[in-house]
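Kindly inspect this today.
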Amino acid sequence: MKEIIQNEKYVELKYKIIDEKTGDILTEVQFPIGYVHGVNKVLSSQVSAELEGKSMGEIIEVPFDGNQIYGSRDESLVIIDSLENVPEEYHEVGTTIIMQNESGETKNFIVTRLDDKSITIDGNNPLCGRNVIFKLEILTVRDATDEEVEAGGKIENGPDINGSLTVPI
């Protein structure tokens, strides 16, 4: 009998985010993500609801309005500045710049345009204003261990740093 996704099941999946209008892949995870369903909120509630009852091997598509998740675009978060005012390390489209306001709060801005004289950075989430499709491939569904339920995901065993290491001379 196939395991189905429900609360306290460990789930691994891969996903892509596809622009509904152009069909372009906007984001694609290279390595599977794992979580405990109903415990870890790594996925939006809409995606989690769509995964409920599905099993390993299934591929689902969940349409999303980026404005519902990230809000409407705020054009005041788009800044165009002279290229000479921005350090050279940020002169590449796609680079993230972390900015801090007077209150100490930080916000990520992404370099979206660059020409010989100016640079454009955008503090809006790249999915704002877009209709997208989350395409998810379910790789694993199994009972989560008590430790995984407590942690919200898979427990990775690291190296034993308390043991001794003997090196032959």
Q: What stands out?
A: The beta strands are 9-19, 25-28, 33-36, 59-65, 78-82, 96-100, 106-114, 118-122, 131-143. The two ends are 55 Å apart (CA to CA). The chain has two domains: 9-69+128-151, 74-122.
